[in-house]
Amino acid sequence: MKRLLERIDREILAAGGKRSRSRAVVIEGFFRARDHVTIEELTRSVRESAPWIGAATVYRTLKLLERLGYAKELDFGEGARRYESNLSPHHDHLVCRQCGTVIEFEDTEIENLQDLVTRRHGFHPTAHRLEIYGFCRICASGESAERVR
Amino acid sequence: MKRLLERIDREILAAGGKRSRSRAVVIEGFFRARDHVTIEELTRSVRESAPWIGAATVYRTLKLLERLGYAKELDFGEGARRYESNLSPHHDHLVCRQCGTVIEFEDTEIENLQDLVTRRHGFHPTAHRLEIYGFCRICASGESAERVR
DNA sequence: GAATATCCTGAAATTGAATTTCATCATCAT
DNA sequence: ATGATGATGAAATTCAATTTCAGGATATTC
Q1: Helix (H) or strand (E) segment spanning residue B6
Q2: Helix (H) or strand (E) holding A116
Q3: Quick one: B15 and B75 in the same domain?
Q4: Which of A97, B4, B20, B37 pairs as cysteine with B41 (C-beta 3.0–4.6 A)?
């Protein structure tokens, strides 16, 4: 984690940016937070230890991390976007409409078929999004206790 | 087309709704418009023949069509949502980031693999979205003339 | 270690799509 | 015709996201 933060720091400097206390707190908070956080959730969380931090800074910092390739923006159609760290390999998402749980999965076969489709249309892909919405095992079984989010 | 509009009319009546001139214009405009329109585009278009129609009515009418199963809401991350008619069979989208062209494709193999994935996680799918972003044949070849949208 | 250019900040203002409110009008059932 | 209720357009509101702005912090140059 320390090494990661230092590396990001160096990249920001190399790109003409400067260090800042607030940004450091947000970046570390982001990597420590559970994945798929909203800006609002992350803001609330970093403010516990650094209450002066404004939401605008959190927005700005996550855009920055996205530009540097360390974060990915997600949109599960909830109104607010979510962010995940981009350290783990590519994957897609199962999103439970009841409890909000997000299950990540990886399927190289699907990816291969996607490549076939794009090739068939002479299309040059740069990114894709695949989300499957529905009910997770627990919620589908009716045991659904409470809404997590 | 006439039969379709009449059928929708009947369904609205059956559900306790009433007819209205504005709504009829919007619905017909929607099915006549090219696919994947934004509310703003559709509003502009219906106002050519019915300038009194407000944007709120277009929003409301498309939500209604969605509820009845005749329209689908799309979000290509452009800020504004798009809508497509839900008459043709299920398909996914290739979205060109240069010219905005949307290519529809259908791939039952991908769908099957998706089912496998969900089953593997005990997940009960209700919907999914798969979009591949990149550059269409024309834009990728550099001939890209102008931005259509 | 001062000077300075420039970046970063938090608060507040702004944007823009989407939704809601509200007074009025239109449509359906009787 | 009449009454009940749905639908309308304009305006107000919501809400996430972005931008503005004046002040503060940080790197760089000497």
Answers
A1: helix B2-14
A2: helix A108-120
A3: yes
A4: B37
Q: How many domains does chain B have?
A: 2
Q: Do A114 and B132 touch (CB under 8 A)?
A: yes
Chain B residues in contact with A80 (beta carbon < 8 A): none
CA to C1' distance (Å), from A122 to D23: 53
Interchain contact, B125 vs A132, CB within 8 Å = yes
Tens digits of residue pLDDT in A72-123: 999 999 999 999 999 999 999 999 999 999 999 999 999 999 999 999 999 9
Q: Which residues touch strand D (CB under 7 A)?
A: A 13, 18-21, 38-40, 55-56, 59-60, 63, 79-81; B 12, 16-18, 20, 22-23, 52-54, 56-57, 60-61
What is the domain range of residue B11?
2-85
Q: How far apart are CA A58 and CA A42, in angstroms?
A: 8
Instruction: Decide if A149 is inside a domain.
Output: no
Residues B114 and B44 in one domain: no
pLDDT digits (tens, 9 = 90+) for A56-75: 999 999 999 999 999 999 99
